[in-house]
Amino acid sequence: MTLNRPDKLNAWTPQMADDLRRAIGQAGSDPDCRVIVITGAGRSFCAGADMGGLQNTVETRVASVTSAHDADELGFAAASGADPEAHCPGRFGYMFSCPKPIVAAINGPCAGIGLLNKALPAGDLMAHVTEVAKAMVTNASPRSMAVMERQLRLASHQSFAESLAMADAEMQGSFAAPDFKEGVQSFVERRAPQFPGL
Question: What's 127's domain CATH number?
Answer without folding.
Answer: 3.90.226
